[in-house]
Design a protein that fits this description.
Elements lengths: L2 H14 L6 E5 L11 E7 L19 E7 L2 E7 L4 H4 L6 H9 L4 E10 L9 E9 L24 H13 L5 E7 L8 H10 L3 E3 L3 H9 L3 E11 L10 H25 L3
Parallel strand pairs: 1-4, 1-5, 5-9, 6-7, 7-8
Antiparallel strand pairs: 2-3, 3-4, 5-8, 6-9
Helix pairs in contact: 1-3, 3-6, 4-7
Length: 272
């Protein structure tokens, strides 16, 4: 544990004041309203935690705030904001944050993101449970680590048991989830139609610019991972719409109520 993670863990324990959440949620675009549902909340700005990234020049919808509290009967830590690899060129922006969570006893990281669809049947506004990923960038946040522990088994990157629990909870909430493979691309530019054809040939159902580096760090830290994608657009070449971040945010906002309702149901049904 490096000094920044140790200091962040100490500060976070003090702010948690005896709480011991086992679940952390990393909110992507469109998922932010979940933080408003957290009860008995304690807020900690990322700026107070030295291992966390600075999001001063970050992306719209990513505010840089940790909120701890209860969601129903479940103690949770919610991270509103992530640093993307396209902001710095490095994939380790959230490494210190995730290691801090592990240091204070978190066992499960639930990730959310906004993604483009590569499957004609997976339409904007729908949700996809990530079953696996393609690290198209072939970059790792573990570069520079030493010892055998850096060679992390990724064969169960998205926990099968947690996925089954999520499926059951979503079904009960009236929002059945499809499962699919998420392809991570660096960005910030959107993909070309040729790149989308390549990703489809490789077996991806959705594409986005986040999540995979955080999953790698989480698995390295011993956390189990569950991940949900909110589909905001059809990928390049699959529709006539012009892609933009503003369009992504607008679609995510329009679909956020259903997405957040489903996520809250999933979180309250998880058996850690």
């Amino acid at each position: 544990m490096n000094d920044a993670v140790a200091a962040s863990a100490t500060t976070l324990r003090q702010r948690l004041d005896g709480r011991a959440p086992k679940v952390a949620v990393l909110l992507g675009s469109g998922w932010g309203p979940l933080a408003q549902q957290v009860q008995d909340a304690v807020d900690v700005p990322y700026a107070d935690l030295p291992a966390f990234p600075s999001l001063g020049q970050g992306v719209g919808g990513h505010v840089g705030l940790l909120r701890a509290g209860r969601l129903g009967a479940v103690d949770v830590v919610v991270l509103a904001g992530r640093q993307h690899a396209y902001e710095t060129g490095q994939p380790d922006g959230m490494k210190g944050a995730i290691r801090t969570l592990a240091a204070v006893g978190v066992q499960v990281l639930v990730q959310t993101n906004a993604a483009g669809s590569l499957a004609p049947e997976l339409r904007p506004g729908e949700l996809m449970l990530m079953s696996d990923h393609l690290n198209v960038v072939q970059r790792s946040p573990l570069v520079g680590e030493t010892g055998d522990h850096r060679f992390v088994d990724m064969s169960n990157a998205y926990c099968l048991r947690l996925r089954a629990q999520a499926q059951a909870a979503a079904q009960a909430a009236g929002t059945p989830l499809c499962e699919g493979v998420y392809a991570w691309v660096l960005g910030p530019q959107f993909e070309t139609p040729a790149e989308i054809r390549m990703l489809r040939a490789l077996g991806a159902q959705a594409v986005g610019m986040s999540t995979v580096p955080e999953t790698i760090v989480a698995r390295h830290a011993g956390l189990r991972v569950l991940a949900l994608s909110l589909i905001t657009n059809m990928a390049a070449g699959l529709s006539t719409e012009t892609l933009s971040h503003a369009h992504t945010l607008a679609t995510a906002h329009a679909a956020s109520e259903r997405a957040v309702r489903t996520l809250a149901a999933v979180l309250q049904a998880l058996e850690i």
